User: Which sequence fits this backbone?
DNA sequence: ATATAGTGTGTCAAATTTACACCATTAAAT
DNA sequence: ATTTAATGGTGTAAATTTGACACACTATAT
């Protein structure tokens, strides 16, 4: 019995939840749509996959086109396939997240005309988003909240050199709760993957804090066993 | 600007990793394919999604058609979208897992002709599988291994009434390591979601063990805060 | 009766987690 | 020069959790 593949049966898209951290606040990247449906609405950056690109490649391309951001480490987290999630027909979407340092990043700006603008928006008090993007965001946020505990994702959000207070306030923003300063530091430093630098914070009008770096080599050495459990 | 959706751009399928537990061994459900490509190969149960069904619905339908199993609680865990994962063209697949009690289950048997047979196979010493199904299996196995620690999935694999030794041997099979009997029991019982029954094991030629039940109501009460973090 | 196979139980040491408060340092303001 | 405002940086003790460890009990089969 020989069976040939059916012709294509779905439209396939990617949506991205891009987290950034700035001024002690967790933010995500939104775009203002320039197309129907949901023209002028705010939405997650997302678009349709081409036939000859893997979904991981598509995610990178689409994010670039809508925001100008490149070379992020994006990770798939869920696929949304309700029949009616797109008003014009069957569209299945794979959602990705990435975490980036906003600091010093040149301004985000769409490269194509599908979006009018792109900008950072605090994750608290998000407006209504197009399609089922609010649900996609929630799912992604829950994912990284959980992963924060077993993946070194915090360091992707911070500048290369950071203070322990910055690190803590990031944890607090993601987990949405206060942490104890002394315990937090003790714990973080005990892992042994933070490298204390000889440098201090600059430009602050109070006692400057020591700067630290994330040492990925040490991290993977320490956690090599656990690492494979993820994907 | 009005843009209409492109015509369909991909073939979209579902693959299922169905775990069962029998005789102290963790198993998954495989089928023998009856179609090219990979005719006669062993594969995960999987097939193509229809246009008018959600992916969750499709997963249930496809599993039923290939194995005769119904009403499992299936959960999506990853989407595989490499361009060349299917030799005949672009096929994106969403992988689902489910866990079921093999015990007393009537024999698995394909309902359609796409599979010649369906059967349980121990997860150790799996043969080569069709397509990228070995990778899909590995990813799924890692997923449930991790979820075992924060989701009550173990109880889906056991009969309704089970002994603590059975529960422990399931944990050992999934985590692939020996656990300490006394510590395991102490811990499990301390959670408070296991209900001790007045019944004992029957038909064993040694001291019969007490039977327990998983009390889902208590479980959700205890862990209501953590629950939302998953999806 | 006895051999067999698995059930069921407690303690102590070590490690981890939690709670908790004050002095030090710097720049800016006076 | 002094004060103020803001944050940096540090230790200890109690409570909790984890981990290591061994033997008597019970039901059945012979």
Assistant:
């Amino acid at each position: 019995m020989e069976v040939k593949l059916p012709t294509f049966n779905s439209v396939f898209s990617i949506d991205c939840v891009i987290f950034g951290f700035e001024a002690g606040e967790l933010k995500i990247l939104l775009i203002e749509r320039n197309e129907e449906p949901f023209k002028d609405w705010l939405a997650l950056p997302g678009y349709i996959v081409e036939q000859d690109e893997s979904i991981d490649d598509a995610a990178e391309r689409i994010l670039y086109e809508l925001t100008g951001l490149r070379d992020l480490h994006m990770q798939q987290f869920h696929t949304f396939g309700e029949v009616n999630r797109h008003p014009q027909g069957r569209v299945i979407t794979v959602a990705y997240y990435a975490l980036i340092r906003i600091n010093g990043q040149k301004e985000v700006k769409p490269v194509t005309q599908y979006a009018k603008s792109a900008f950072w928006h605090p994750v608290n008090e998000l407006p209504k988003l197009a399609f089922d993007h609010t649900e996609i965001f929630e799912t992604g946020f829950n994912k990284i909240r959980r992963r924060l505990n077993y993946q070194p994702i915090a360091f992707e959000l911070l500048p290369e050199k950071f203070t322990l207070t910055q690190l803590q306030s990031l944890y607090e923003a993601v987990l949405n709760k206060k942490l104890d300063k002394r315990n937090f530091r003790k714990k973080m430093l005990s892992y042994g993957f933070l490298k204390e630098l000889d440098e201090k914070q600059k430009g602050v009008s109070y006692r400057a804090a020591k700067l630290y770096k994330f040492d990925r080599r040490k991290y993977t050495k320490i956690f090599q066993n656990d690492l494979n459990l993820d994907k």
